Amino acid sequence: MSEDFLNHQSNWEDLYFYQKAEVLYQMTVVFCRRFLPKYGDRTVDQMTQAARSCKQNIVEGSADGVTSMETEIKLLNTARGSVIELREDYQDYLKAHSLSVWDEKHPRYADMLRFCRAHNRLDEYNPFFERFNAEEMANCAKTLCHIEDKMLSNYLERKKKEFLQKGGIRERMTAARLRKREEQNQVIAKLKADVEALRRENQSLKAEIKKLKG
Fold it and tell me: Rounded CA gap, 206 and 179, in Å?
């Protein structure tokens, strides 16, 4: 019966936007270590917490989504808000340090965008963490944030449509109970019909025996 109303739990480690969120968290930790002051700068905590919040809320949302799609949607929205905040931090860093913000006009933007779109796993980015300068790393992270935001937005839209179609767990549990009750009623009705058929057959046999005796 539980299969009727519990949602299927996705393996979040297989979700591309989770993999990118993990890359962003590890990249942000290294970025803060390499390019921000070790002490006295609240930006370090803000950036690492925003990156961690994105990743952890994806995990928690995927786990809680088994019983509550509403909670999953809420937590994924929180993850999206965190990655938007992180993107702004990287944007602010570039501007504050008079570094180039890479866009369509920048000669390296297209290659970076293609790489970030095509690669999701941490081991594909790890070799660059110590080689990137601040401008390269901040622009790469900012681009990943933008892609992550888009991927989460698309996934949330699908989840919202699914919620409208299937409803919340209370509605699904009620529907499952009604289906079970209908199945039980059908079984009872069949048993009653079988009993009635046997009763008629029994009466017919009694009449036949009486007739033979007479």
Answer: 41
